[in-house]
Amino acid sequence: MGFFLVMKAEVVRSLIIMRRYWFATLTGIIMGYGFLLALVLGFFGGYVPIDKVMSVVENILGFIIGMFAFGIIGLFTSGLQGMARTGQLEQVCMSPHGLVTNFLARSFVSAVTSILSLSIVFTLVALHVGGEFHAPVLPTITLLALTYVNLIGFGFMTGGLVLIFKQTGQIATLLRLGLLLWAVFATEEIRKLPRAAQWVAHALPVTDAAICLKYVMIQGQRAMVENAAGELVPEGPYLSVFSPSYPSFYALILSSVVWTLIGISCFRYMENVSRNKGTLGAY
Amino acid sequence: MVRLERVNKIFHTRHFLLADEDTGRRTLYRKKTVHAVNDVDFAVKRGEIFGLLGPNGAGKTTAVKMISGLVRPNSGAVYVDDLHVERKRLKVLRKVGVVLEGTRTSIWPLTPLENLAYFGNLKDVKGPVLKQRSRELLNFIGLKDKMNVQVRRLSRGQKQKLAICIALIADPPVILLDEPTTGLDVQSSRAIKDKIIEITREHGKTALVTTHDMNVAQELCDRIGIINHGKLIACQPTDELLGLFAEKTFEFHLNRAPDLSLLRQIPGVEAAQLLDGEEEIVLAVTVARDEEDRSAALYGAIQCLHAQRILLRSITQRRQTLENVFLRLTGDTEPK
Fold first, then answer.
1. Which residue, B218, B190, B195, is CA-closest to B207?
2. Tell me, what CATH number does B256's domain have?
3. What is the DSSP annotation of A19-87?
4. Domain count, chain B
5. A8 and chain B: CB distance < 8 Å anywhere?
6. Residue B18: beta bridge partners?
7. In the A/B pair of chains, how many CB contacts fall below 8 A?
8. What is the pLDDT of residues A147-169, one digit of tens each?
9. ipTM of model over 0.85
10. Which residue(s) pair with B264 in the sheet?
11. For residue B283, is it within any domain?
């Protein structure tokens, strides 16, 4: 109940701010589109070769997922840091719903608004470079929801650290940048890595989310096969992302559950430590 | 309503390359311990305005933060409406409205009405009750005509008024105000004080106000606790506190300086000294507290001045101020 009340408050707040600062919202989307397009076209000299379009769109999707991860985790790190600096965090800490519920609702609303704006940017850039993508409703929404759950677990963990050591927000920014890059390059190819490296890769919160989303949205849930030119193309048999034969989806579920449990437990523990140290809500 | 029982809070801070205050030498790592709240015991009754007075760093804000659950005490217990703050923190937060120091407690891009809607939801107030209460509060505090203006456009005093509304949105029986008038001009400060009195007297709330402004404490509070270096060194009704070091000092405004040795010989006169007056001579005479001795001493002083043919322009009794009491209690020197 508390979650929905806080969520309602956050939705209203976000809508008001988006409406009141509509120009900033709009220019944000245009800037995202322009920046990404300039990056892609700049890399290829103003024109994306037809045989590269698919991998470019895949990388763009990876970048968008990375941006999403950057934003969501940022809410728990620099967002929390900023709230502490302005004094708003103290008000939120004194909400009878508890800090975890508040941040869950806050991050959920932020995730929805991010998905909406990033979807627009992705669609525009993908179409501009002549690419195409799939967006089956159920798998896409399920994967986005799991991606969010996966990220908030990690976000809660880093947010807990920020509650105690406010300066760790800066280190967390480096981590977020690392995850952004990793989301671009995370593919099923990680299965070819040594077992220990594979474990490390799967342990990162964005790996399986990026792999699954790329599999659904770019490959159209088809396995990659090598064509006559030696390039990998999604022309294998159809295999649903939910199929037990497709391990990344279940790895994503496992990762989400584990990260959420670790993240929320850490956050609660750190919240208590922060109250002991007298730094809760203060910068 | 609010009770602190032998509460202690110790903060540990870690310092790297901290220079020693005396020698100036830097040490690689040093841990410092601050006893922010030291065995503090007090209770605030229902409908009372209790002032927690103390210099900067005395432990006032820490005490407020412990009542609102933001800081956990090392030992002792804090109760709000008989609920243990540590064990029933979320329930306690429904009973407490807090105005912490600073003006960024509201969301600046939103209007006061939108802020109240937002914080109302955070504090479990919803629907028509929230709408009605928001309007009533803004009307009560005097922000009715600013309810649709973005907070960033409001003055500091108006922002502080909004912070009070936010604290009151869930209609809590207890309101904690940390330095509510700091940085405000005279009018805004007066308005805030009046509203705090109204909240307690007419709406039956219990208020705990921390301040280092003696005038605010003296005008506002029914009872005052003085805290210094984390220790509660006095906790009494304001009138009794003012009478703590009550000296009967009278100021005689004269045309020239009298012979002080003659005055000091008068029975009942405990002290006589000259003060720096701008255009006239001011003689401060401290007399005995006993009424008869005091009367005799005053008559004696007047006769002595008359005998010296000194023109007596006026006599005023020096009033005891909270500032004097505070300075005496905290061990600092009393001003003239």
1. B195
2. 3.30.70.100
3. HHTHHHHHHHHHHHHHHHHHHHHHHTTT---GGGHHHHHHHHHHHHHHHHHHHHHHHHTHHHHHHHHHT
4. 2
5. yes
6. B27
7. 88
8. 999 999 999 999 998 888 877 77
9. no
10. none
11. yes
